[in-house]
Specification:
The protein is of the alpha+beta class. 43% of the residues lie in helices and 16% in strands. Strands 18-22-21-20-19-23-24 form a seven-stranded mixed beta sheet, covered by helices on one side.
Amino acid sequence: MTIPFIDATLATGGGKAANLGELQRAGFPVPDGFVITADTYRNAVADLDLDVLLAQGPDAVRAAVEAQPVPAHVAQEITNRLATWGEGTAVAVRSSATAEDLPDASFAGQQDTFLGVVGAEAVLDAVRRCWGSLWTTRAVDYRQRNAFDHHNVALAVVIQRLVDADTAGVLFTRDPITGSEETLIDASWGLGESIVSGAVTPDEYRATTATVLERHLGAKQTRIDRHGATTRTTNVAPADQTRLCLTDTQVLELARLGQAVQNHYGIDMDLEWAYTGSTLWLLQARPITTTASAPAETRQPPTTTVSGRRIGKASRTFHTDLVEHYPGPYPLDLAAIIPMHRQLQAGMSSIGITSTPIDQLIAMEPDGTLTAAYPDVHLSWRLARLLRYQAPDPAGWPSVEATYRRQLAAVLPADLTAVPNQHLLTLLDQVLALVSDIARARFLDYVGPAQLTALRLGRYLALARRRDLYAYDLLGDLEYTTVTIDKDLHRLAALDPESPAYRDAYQQFLDQHGARTTQLYLPFSHRSWREDHTSLDATLAAVRRAPDRPNDTASHQDLVDEITRRLPSPARRGFVRTLCAWRDGHVAREASVYLIEDAYVIARRVTNEIAARLHHRQALDTPEHLKYLTLPEIATALTEPASTQETRATASQRKGDRPRAAAAWWARADLPADTRLAGAAGSPGQATGPVRVITGPQDFDQLQPGDILVCHYTDPSWTPLFGLAAAIVADTGGRLSHAAIVAREYGIPAVMGAAGATTTLTNGQIITINGTTGTITI
């Protein structure tokens, strides 16, 4: 006989139907359906000698079961129920065993499902095939491994209205690998069968009910959709393959649905879901049976320097700078971090500031976890050299940059596909060597001397009785790289996105500024705007939402004139000369960053070719997995074909361990127990508003006008967000960090170095921050 979902129990309808019935009774959005009871199956096979048939093999049992007719009265009930839904209604016909979707055994995928079934005769045929699927080889083996008696298992069949999904997938309410209490979501276009069957590489999301923590773009090469009375697999358009199929709003809605289902059952759950337009449907729910065996060990932050000494102020400052500049690196990023930081340390050493070499500070564990130790820092008499250092005129940077650009343009051949494997590695070394040269010039000739210039400006400001100002307050009306890009972003955002003018302007913007990245010192785990338009589109969306800000009445020149008038006459010429050097130096400092970003785009052309070759050789599940390997591991994989399986296993394992590995990077020495959530005063003023935790450009569209932006750090690509935010709170950074500088330019309060803010504060929570005192009131 047949019964509606709402009346199904484990005995009558099997695990799947019982769960659907319970969910429907609880008010969850379950598509309507009914169940052909387990007793119907028992009656249909009652005359079969299952033991004799099983001795011949599972296929013999299956053939005999599928040959049994559906009892006439049951067939009539099915016909009548289908008629109430209307002629031509497509349904899903799903197996629901009495030992299925249980806390200790899910039986997921062991029996068959038929999608897009239309008409009573087709449904009856699918029912018989569902019955037969109880006896597939995989189902028989599964029961034997889990000690289920074949005779005690019966099969009900679920008939459910088919949701013609635009997007569908699966959801786990707990990470089954790490055991962390976070929602994991796989999603793709069309029906969820694409994901369940493993036919596509889906988009992957990690979230809480308040925040999307991580997103990974999947290939989503094909999709399955209903086509009349059948389903059809088609290729996904290239544009849809390269964009996420869920919005953050949908991800959070799914996370909340998963939490509600988990709360209802009191156990971690595995859900199947679908979206039709903006409507979310819950298609299936079962307990997770593959949870982590034990919670991950809590990583304790270091309490001493790398040599065992007490962590002092200098050590803490250097550690914070290291963590902020390279936030959450992947193993391949070490190929850029190590040489870049060596140049920074060489520049400091030349003037008497030495610290533990970067090679001894960053350690990597086999699972890909990277940690940064606290350095030993020493100041020597050579620091006095800073006062006598003859730096080049910062106004001459354009000619320096032109030389580097000529060298970069000549380093790669036109066709990388024809380059032998070993030579690819040589080319990568050459690009990275050029980046090191640029970095050495940047740190030694421009960044270091600029700090001395800032000190001199500070003395002039004190002499003018304007101790409330800093050197960075004297960068107004200056056309440097970040300002130029920000202005062009606003011009582009003002155009109609559907117009031909917008398309032309968009391409022109990418040609001029497309090398900008979201994390500029992590070049191998992130992409530029030119390579991945998603982050640029999110940035443009944030610009469009930002309210117009009134123009400041006081200009930069007015401020300079006021300071000049306040200075004694003999000091005025020196002030103007120092100010010009400061502003020219800032232009060079910003331009050199963008030059490094351009160089890394070239480096990624090489690593992209390497990734494609390793993927083709099946040494990587996807080309994206290259970032989970170190450069020496990649060299081995390229030159030693026998390492293919080991390489693939290493990258795949590190991908699974990534959530733990990413969190470990932010470990820092414990603050005193009585310390409140507070940090450094970054930009003066006070503001109250709701928290919005932003982890990267993929979250930009979450920020609303008046929100308090809470983040690990920011870099230049985040600048448009400051037009939306009421205030800024950052885990890391100080008064001279990028977030503080831009916050002052926008006239909004900022608190920097508020360790733990991104984990302590939650979205929507109302807080008050005081950027003058560096305090946060919850």
